[in-house]
Amino acid sequence: MHDEFIILADDHPIFRDGMFALVRELLPHSRIASVDTFASAIEVARAGPSPPSMFIVDLFFGGESIASNLGKLREEFLFSSIVVVSMASDKASIDAVMNAGANGFVNKAASPNEIRDLLKAVRNGDVVVNMPFPARTMEAPTISPSPSPNLSQRQIDVLHLIADGRTNKEIAILLGISPFTVRIHVSAIFRTLGTTTRAGAVARGIALGLVPTSQTSTE
């Protein structure tokens, strides 16, 4: 039985095969679809019995960026994690990807262990940005928060538990929902509040009056 459905899209066969092997090692029971175009990734996702749990896609196909299409991908597959992999390291490209709703940006220069850890973080509901040479590159991208953040009551419940220092697994147990659903809520909270960290979400929540100031367990 397959626990998750992952779509991997990259037009570089060697990298695609390497990423396939890495994901297979990380999620041995997952179903992985490997394609060489962005259009094929969408086609496979639409044809599946259920939406993919994660897209892992290259930023460039045939020399053209898909950044402008990521927003539509996010809208259509609201509950799927989106991880973009690329050799690009400029702030404009990363900002475009993250502001479009991606859950992660991974530079192809990252080591297999780094990529594995980043994918794990995304599965845990975190928003991650990896760059090859932190000291030589610009700061992490700024994600603009919604002008009037509108979190659902369930998302506020999740935010309160994040503020209590709870892990996604603990939140799932306390709320009686699946860890995957918790990841969806955490990612949505990050996007809505314009942050990429749990601590940032709590700080933003306190500033907006969504979280009591006494809840400061998250570092």
UniProtKB/TrEMBL annotation:
Name of the protein this chain belongs to: DNA-binding response regulator
Keyword Protease: no
4-aspartylphosphate sites (modified residues): 58
Record domain Response regulatory: where: 5-123
SMART domains, alphabetized: HTH_LUXR
Source species: Rhizobium oryziradicis
Record InterPro entries: CheY-like_superfamily, EvgA-like, NreC/VraR/RcsB-like_REC, Sig_transdc_resp-reg_C-effctor, Sig_transdc_resp-reg_receiver, Tscrpt_reg_LuxR_C, WH-like_DNA-bd_sf
The HTH luxR-type domain, residue ranges: 144-209
Keyword set, alphabetical order: DNA-binding, Phosphoprotein
MF terms (GO), sorted A to Z: DNA binding
Gene3D superfamilies listed in its UniProt record: 3.40.50.2300, Winged helix-like DNA-binding domain superfamily/Winged helix DNA-binding domain
GO biological process, one term: regulation of DNA-templated transcription
KW Protease (keyword) present: no
Coiled-coil features, chain-numbered ranges: none
